[in-house]
Inverse folding.
């Protein structure tokens, strides 16, 4: 899915998390000590806020663009801290931000939702407001509610588990008239928590339909069209009668090429996750059955707005569901794709 649940685990982690649109391994880090900063001046002319993420891909770049655009016309100065896909760097970056005593707020994408918690707790204790986006911060990956005491807000368009349910429901719709209908979910990387949550949600979404046969999941080994094409070629050799395949938009792009090569574009119905411009175009043309929508630009806008609100009022413990807030139908098919405007390229 969401892109950053799709990251490789670090080598120096004490245990491996099995999730996330950016999920990575848990880092074994000792306790930290951060000198208390002065309480943020709520009457300051300008609020300094830090955006901590990677912008090396189009999904997170769209979040950053929404964040920056929402700051326009407000007394807010945004500073970008690019931590790549390194959770240990993210941890130390948060420490550095707090130590500078210049920032009233941090918006961050948790690369590892557990190991970074001590750094976030220290920031909150120092008076810095913290908003996390796109991934939960904490061990429960199936909730939007903040799990760290004092955290201002979590901003997401859905949990990975919910996204998986929507994909499963779309697979059931795609199976109408086919009995038995063989369906599969393709992971990007096996063994990460986000992918596990997606797969479990997918299986819940197809549960109770006797004609729909889950034939297991495969791992593409990454999140590129090339990896998706190779993995789908292997899958079609193993299960030549496969009817429905669900995965991320990037992987599904490659899966379509594999179905073309095998002469099975009519047999194999494809369901993506992302609502990217490429996925929406393929859905409109009928190449794909559909895609589950994500809203990275809106996530960025909502993150900036609630962070400023937290700085001004001290509000905390908020859960912002962007899909609900924007009234977006997350299940995009050819029937309703014409008017949808994708927020990232994929």
């Amino acid at each position: 899915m969401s892109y950053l649940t799709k990251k490789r685990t670090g080598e120096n982690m004490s245990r491996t998390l099995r999730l996330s649109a950016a999920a990575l391994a848990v880092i074994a880090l000792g306790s930290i000590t951060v000198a208390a900063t002065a309480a943020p001046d709520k009457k300051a002319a300008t609020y300094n806020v830090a955006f901590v993420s990677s912008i090396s891909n189009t999904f997170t770049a769209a979040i950053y663009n929404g964040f920056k655009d929402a700051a326009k016309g407000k007394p807010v100065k945004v500073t970008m801290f690019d931590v790549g896909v390194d959770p240990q760097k993210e941890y130390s970056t948060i420490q550095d931000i707090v130590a500078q005593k210049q920032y009233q707020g941090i918006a961050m994408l948790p690369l590892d939702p557990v190991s970074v918690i001590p750094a976030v707790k220290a920031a909150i204790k120092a008076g810095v407001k913290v908003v996390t986006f796109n991934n939960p911060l904490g061990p429960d990956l199936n909730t939007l509610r903040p799990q760290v005491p004092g955290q201002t807000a979590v901003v997401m368009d859905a949990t990975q588990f919910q996204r998986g349910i929507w994909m499963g429901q779309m697979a059931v719709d795609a199976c109408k008239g086919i009995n038995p209908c063989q369906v599969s979910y393709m992971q990007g990387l096996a063994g990460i928590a986000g992918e596990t949550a997606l797969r479990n949600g997918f299986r819940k979404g197809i549960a109770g339909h006797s004609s729909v046969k889950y034939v297991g999941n495969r791992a593409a080994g990454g999140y590129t069209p090339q990896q998706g094409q190779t993995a789908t070629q292997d899958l079609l050799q193993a299960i030549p009668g496969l009817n429905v395949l669900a995965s991320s938009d990037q992987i599904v792009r490659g899966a379509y090429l594999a179905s073309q090569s095998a002469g099975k574009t009519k047999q194999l119905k494809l369901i993506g996750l992302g609502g990217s411009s490429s996925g929406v175009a393929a859905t409109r043309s009928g190449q794909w059955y559909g895609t589950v929508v994500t809203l990275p630009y809106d996530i960025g806008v909502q993150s900036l707005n609630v962070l400023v609100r937290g700085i001004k009022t001290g509000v905390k413990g908020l859960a912002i569901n962007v899909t609900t807030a924007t009234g977006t139908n997350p299940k995009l098919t050819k029937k309703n794709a014409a008017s949808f405007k994708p927020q990232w390229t994929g």
